[in-house]
Design a protein that fits this description.
218 residues; six-stranded mixed beta sheet; 38% helix
């Protein structure tokens, strides 16, 4: 019995030491992460205000997020499914997918098209009219200039070739080139995406969340 008691008293101390060492290792890794690290960004976006800040900056308008899902598997029962980083719904019923992409291959135009289709397929209930589909935005934030036209941001939508007028399907694709920084709201967002330290960021909202994740027990 005495030997058992002795082992029991030693075990918690060993566990605590192991946990402390593991915490320090994780903390060292965390210090080097930026918002361009998709796993870190997904944790940042768990706070709706962070999602709102990015959407407001990219769209250039007021956005109020009412619901969002992080890392959800969007099902296609007859084909390929996909796990989307963040899909938000705003108070205007719009659906907006934010994706962080490190590699050019992960942000191809056809992948953006597929993401848009998956969101649509998971929006309407049986019997709903197609005209009830909400506006649909797929936003790729990419480490390099995927489009290759040396722009900070690219807006893509469908237009009628003969008239130049919008087709009106309410589907929009946006690429943010995180390889370029200029003196604009988008440029300052891109600057923040590359910051390792909260104190170096322009956005108080993003800085607060980064500080929380890097410097607190969470």
């Amino acid at each position: 019995m005495e030997e058992g008691k002795q082992n029991d008293s030693v075990l918690p101390e060993e566990v605590n030491k192991e946990l402390e060492e593991r915490y320090e290792r994780y903390r060292a890794v965390l210090q080097n992460l930026t918002l361009m690290s998709d796993a870190f960004m997904r944790n940042v976006l768990k706070k709706k205000e962070c999602t709102e800040h990015i959407l407001r900056t990219v769209l250039g308008e007021e956005v109020q997020v009412v619901d969002q899902t992080i890392q959800k598997d969007y099902k296609n029962l007859q084909g390929r499914s996909a796990v989307l980083d963040c899909v938000a719904e705003d108070d205007r019923n719009r659906r907006m997918n934010i994706e962080i992409q490190q590699e050019k291959e992960g942000a191809s135009p056809k992948r953006a098209r597929y993401h848009s289709g998956l969101i649509d397929m998971n929006t309407l209930d049986p019997g709903q009219d197609f005209d009830e589909l909400p506006e649909n935005y797929v936003i790729f934030i990419t480490r390099t200039d995927v489009i290759g036209e040396k722009k900070q941001i690219y807006h893509i939508d469908r237009r009628i070739q003969e008239t130049g007028k919008p087709f009106g399907d309410d589907t929009f694709i946006i690429y943010v080139n995180a390889g370029m920084q200029d003196d604009t709201e988008i440029g300052r967002l891109v600057h923040d995406l590359h910051c390792k330290k909260a104190e170096d960021m322009y956005s108080e909202v993003l800085a607060k969340r980064v500080l929380e994740l890097k410097e607190t027990v969470e």
